[in-house]
Amino acid sequence: MEFTNYKCPVCDKQFVSGDDIVVCPECGAPHHRECYDKNGHCFYEEKHSENFSFENIYSENTESDKKSSDDSAESNTVVCPYCKADSPKDAFYCEKCGFPLNEQDRKNQGNAQNSSQNQNVPPYGAPFGANPQQFNMAFDPMAGFKNDEPIGDNVTAGEMSKFIGKSTPYFLRIFGNIKRFNKSRYNFAAFFFSGIYFMYRKMIGLGIIFSILLIGLTVGETFIQYTSQFQSVYNEVLNMSTQELYSLTNSSALLDTFTTREILILYLPSLLSLLKFVMMIVCGCIANRSYYKHCFKKINQIKDIKIINSQVLNTNDVLESTGGVNLPIAICVSVIYIVIMYLPLFIF
Question: Which of 198, 246, 266, 298 is exposed most, by the fewest CB atoms within 10 A?
Answer without folding.
Answer: 246
